[in-house]
Amino acid sequence: MKILVMSDTHGDAQVIQHVRTLHSDVDAVFHCGDSELTSDHEVLKGIHIVQGNCDWGEAFPEEKVIEVEGSRIYITHGHLFNVKNTLMPLKYRAEEKNADVVLFGHSHLLGAEMDNGVLFLNPGSLKQPRGRNEKSYAIIQRKSDNWQVQFYSDEGILLEDINL
Fold first, then answer.
1. Where are the alpha helices (DSSP H) in the chain?
2. Which stretches make up the Calcineurin-like phosphoesterase domain (predicted)?
3. What are the start-end ranges of the E strands in the chain?
4. Distances 36 to 2, 14, 58, 85 between C-alpha atoms, Å
5. In sequence order, what are the residues at sequence separation of 6 or more whose Cβ sits closer than 8 angstroms to the Cβ of residue 109?
6. Residue 116 in contact with residue 136, Cβ under 8 Å?
7. Distance CA 1, CA 10 (A)
8. Could you read off the pLDDT of 73-115 as tens digits, one per residue?
9. What is the fold, at CATH topology level, of the domain defined by 2-163?
């Protein structure tokens, strides 16, 4: 399984298209909210996307569970779970959803960690990064006994390669 994860693109349809073009070989594409695009925007076709705090209306759901090659992936923006301060509410929700992977955004800080066998991942922001200078997104691959998480810059340059 290989998936592309992005978040917090804040109206930049071109960067979404650019990143999708760089990684056209993925099994699924996820956007963790704050796209600030309409639900019928061409660039969002085929993307699993959720509502962020800067997305207006009710076009996108607040959360989703998608199964990809036997892995249950839970996606939410994070603002409803106070992710800028703690991951505990999100961890409880992941447990309720029986998730193997949790994808979220909102803080614009990239990061990945395993907690009780669950991968938690924030791809950072492709528009307004925080914590480091590079705009970022992630590629996740399921290996036989672990997860490979690769963070890339908006230009497709590898920033970090982590095995969890």
1. 13-22, 88-96
2. 1-143
3. 2-6, 28-31, 47-49, 63-68, 71-76, 101-103, 110-115, 118-123, 136-142, 147-153, 158-163
4. 26, 13, 12, 24
5. 122, 124, 130, 131
6. no
7. 28
8. 999 999 999 999 999 999 999 999 999 999 999 999 999 999 9
9. Purple Acid Phosphatase; chain A, domain 2 (3.60.21)
Strand pairing class (136-142; 147-153): antiparallel
CB atoms within 10 A of CB 61: 12
Which residue matches tokens 């090659």?
69
Tokens of 71: 């892995």
pLDDT 10s per residue in the chain (164 long)? 999 999 999 999 999 999 999 999 999 999 999 999 999 999 999 999 999 999 987 889 999 999 999 999 999 999 999 999 999 999 999 999 999 999 999 999 999 999 999 999 999 999 999 998 999 999 999 988 899 999 999 999 999 999 99
